[in-house]
Amino acid sequence: MPFLQHLTDSHLEQLALERIVPALLERGYFYLDHFLGEAIGRLVLGQVKQIHRSGVLSDGQLAGRGSGVCRSHIRGDKIAWRSGSERGSEAIGFLLKQTDKLISLCAGRLGKNTVRERSKAMVACYPGNGAGYVKHVDNPNADGRCVTCIYYLNKNWNAKEHGGVLRIFPEGKSYVADIEPLFDRLLLFWSDRRNPHEVQPSFATRYAITVWYFDSEERAEAKKRFRDSTASSESSTTS
Ligand SMILES: Cn1c(O)c(C(=O)NCC(=O)O)c(=O)c2ccccc21
Ligand SMILES: [Mn+2]
Questions:
Q1: Pairwise CA distance, residues 116 & 118, whole Å
Q2: pLDDT value of residue 139
Q3: Domain range spanning residue 117?
Q4: What is the mean pLDDT of residues 156-184?
Q5: Is 128 inside a domain boundary?
Q6: Cα of 141 from ligand 2 centre, angstroms
Q7: Is 126 contained in some domain?
Q8: Is 20 helix (H, G, I), strand (E, B) or coil?
């Protein structure tokens, strides 16, 4: 089924150059609504709900800090990885094609970053039991990830009632950015220490799809460090 393209390629180019690049360089994050449009957004939501219903989402991580016995038994976010070419994930595949186009249009203008590869899509569901995600940095130690891209899928979301706000604490700034996980909203932000963030407790089912774009050089460096470290640890065990 040929998808009608909500945002034509020239729209995407305008969006990338005139809005996304300036915002990322100036503030470090950017979000826009109506990214795929109602029809395709609903197709993506339908496929995510089917993934959730099919039970393949991981058992949510145990909420709260601590480990062993003192850990609480509230199950938090549940996730599944999708390349977008699986049967039943075609609309997710289309979303990734659109975000790939967007990022490649930005590439070369994002300072030193040359972005050529990305992770698979992480489909995430917060069950609405009050679990959230503690404040963290996606990429604190140069693992290669440079841009976090999150597509939200929640219709009629009311943060006052449902919580689930993403709060970004931009490094060195006196303000925080509160972003509601609204249907068909796309959010991009630097994955490194510039953007610590948290997902506040969610009291309704909260769906999102995240994909991380890699800076090629940083990724290659990280892979090399990993190879060296495993090689040295192997040599130390054998010696
Ligand atoms: C489920 N989930 C996450 O929701 C976020 C995250 O920062 N989400 C922000 C958001 O959904 O607005 C994560 O960064 C994350 C990292 C590893 C595994 C699971 C993860
Ligand atoms: Mn995160």
A1: 7
A2: 98
A3: 9-232
A4: 98
A5: yes
A6: 14
A7: yes
A8: helix
- Asked if residue 212 has pLDDT above 80, the reply is yes
pLDDT attached to residue 64: 60
| CA-nearest residue, atom 5 of ligand 1 | 133
Task: Tell whether the torsion through CA atoms of 187, 192, 193 and 194 is positive or negative.
Answer: negative
Q: In this structure, is residue 2 part of a structural domain?
A: no
More confident residue, 239 or 158: 158
CATH (domain of 129): 2.60.120.620
Report residue 95 as tokens.
């979303």
Tell me how far the alpha carbon of residue 46 is from its chain's centroid. 19
Place of tokens 């609480």: 72
Q: How many structural domains is the chain composed of?
A: 1
pTM here is: 0.93
For ligand 1, residues with CB inside 6 Å are: 77, 79, 124, 133, 138, 150, 166, 181, 197, 199, 208
Mean pLDDT of the chain: 92
Distance 148 CA to ligand 2 centre (A): 8
Concatenated DSSP letters of 37-59: -HHHHHHHHHHHHHHHHTT-SPP
pLDDT value, residue 1: 42
Does 218 map to a domain?
Answer: yes
User: Best substitution site from 31, 79, 125, 133 to test ligand 1's pocket, by max atoms within 8 Å of Cβ?
Assistant: 133
List helix spans (H) across the chain. 9-15, 21-26, 38-53, 90-106, 159-162, 216-238
